[in-house]
Design a protein that fits this description.
Helix content: 25-40%
Radius of gyration: 19 Å
Number of helices: 10
Distance between the termini: 16 Å
Structural class: alpha/beta
InterPro entries: NAD(P)-bd_dom_sf, ODC_Mu_crystall, ODC_N
CATH superfamily of the largest domain: NAD(P)-binding Rossmann-like Domain
Strand order of the largest sheet: 10-9-8-11-12-15-13-14
Number of strands: 15
Number of domains: 2
Protein name: Cyclodeaminase
Strand content: 15-25%
Length: 314
């Protein structure tokens, strides 16, 4: 058994085209029905403002599968500790023996989450997209943009965050990379010229409304990953011409389909893996509005763990 620490994992795995291809292949396998993926195991630790999620999946024919344990303890910054942590354990798919422990402290989750956003934009946004609006200013906001630039020639970034100082700090980082960046006081102005909107907030109430959407925009919603979070209004989902999620079951419990709990959504629900596997184009014209709701799947974890081990073994 091999034990890998975060510094070695970071050196081996970055946001690049090879990592993107590995995660995209995992989604495609899910879409073809070649993945065994149980529901997420979640546990709240209320007295510490914490939660733990366990995710896993097996891609049929793959040499190994991964089980990820991902704790989030949201009072940790007051103790000088990061909010997120975790590790992945890789097992042989032939014998069940532990092959490696990836003590990545949540790094690989951050990477595969950012890559999923890029994959959604690759499949659903206009190829000519150059202007992106980012809602939120945390690490995932930064990483989503970095991954997005693998698939789209982004030149202008519009930023909105609840805390102006956080938005300004984020904008400063992006300007150092040669991007044109605008910080906005309100959502409508931030979104008015967007080709792509990426939401990366922990909001518990819908932030983005149907009236905020310009013609032809693509929205990737990243923030709603638990039953108590929402970023998109129901009216926005019904206005969209195509709604895509990583898995319908997770979107209904943790993602943006929660607003239709107990009733059928009044639109067709597509799954990202099926769109990829079928080579389906949901963007019929430049005016098409698309939404992708990403809650995070076990197949992404198995895909990125396998990719990481292939790099670490070189």
């Amino acid at each position: 058994m091999q034990l890998y620490q975060r510094d070695a994992i970071e050196a081996a795995v970055t946001l690049d085209h090879a990592a993107l291809a590995a995660v995209e292949a995992g989604f495609a396998a899910l879409g073809r029905g070649e993945v065994v993926q149980p529901p997420i195991l979640s546990m709240a630790i209320e007295e510490s403002n914490g939660e733990v999620d366990v995710k896993t999946a097996h891609i049929r024919g793959a040499e190994r599968f991964a089980i990820k344990v991902s704790p989030g303890f949201f009072d940790n910054p007051q103790l000088g500790l990061p909010s997120l942590n975790g590790l992945m354990v890789a097992f042989s798919a032939r014998t069940g023996q532990v092959e490696a422990v990836l003590f990545d402290e949540g790094y690989l989750t951050m990477i595969r989450t950012a890559l999923a956003g890029a994959i959604a934009a690759k499949q659903l946004s206009r190829e000519s997209s150059q202007r992106v609006t980012v809602l939120g200013a945390g690490e995932q906001a930064e990483r989503q943009l970095e991954a997005l630039r693998l698939v789209r020639d982004i030149r202008v970034v519009d930023v909105w965050a609840r805390r102006r100082e956080a938005a300004e700090s984020y904008a400063h980082q992006l300007r150092q990379r040669g991007l044109e960046v605008n910080v906005h006081e309100d959502l409508p102005s931030a979104c008015s010229q967007a080709d792509i909107i990426v939401t990366t907030t922990p909001s518990r109430e819908p932030l983005l409304q149907a009236r905020d959407l310009p013609e032809g925009v693509h929205i990737t919603a990243m923030g709603s990953d638990s039953p108590d979070k929402r970023e998109l209004a129901d009216a926005l989902l019904t206005r969209a011409d195509a709604f895509v999620c990583d898995t319908r079951a997770q979107s209904e419990t943790n993602g943006e389909l929660k607003g239709f709990a107990g009733r059928e959504a009044p639109f067709k629900v597509h799954e990202l893996g099926q769109v990829i596997a079928a080579g389906e184009s949901l963007r019929l014209t430049d005016a098409t509005i698309t939404v992708c709701d990403l809650t995070g799947t076990g197949v992404q974890d198995t895909a990125i763990a396998g990719f990481a081990l292939s790099r670490l073994a070189d």
